[in-house]
Input
Amino acid sequence: MAGKRRRLYAIVAVIVIIVVSTAFFIYYWQSHSNLVRIKEFFKSGGGQAGEYLILGFTVKMENQGVNDVTGLIMVVKVLGNGTELAQDGHPLRPNTLFRGEEREDEELGVIINMTETIDKTLSAVAWIELNGAILDQANLSLQQPFFS
Output
């Protein structure tokens, strides 16, 4: 009887080890699959047109995951004292960011009425989105003067 009980415990232990190992592997694989990171986020251009402030941004990103990622959305939002003033976003083109690839998106920009910026501390946030989930985000403080 004791031998059967030991054998049963051994079988249960092996099954538990296999289940835990498999769960860990699946978690690790998924957490490193779509690992796209923002390497750099900065104001790269802009100007003024009448009463409007134009701000251009560049986001440098890298696919640090184990697979190619398709369907990324790039978004930048400008805030004044924490309140949204303007937002721009678009799908990343070309559509696929290959494993290990670094890419620069220089096509993000916003137009803000100058009166909305008076006495406000401006900041910007950029993020990379995939299927509604944010993969990475970067913040930027916007100091005046905007044009140098």
Q: What stands out?
A: The chain has one domain: 36-142.
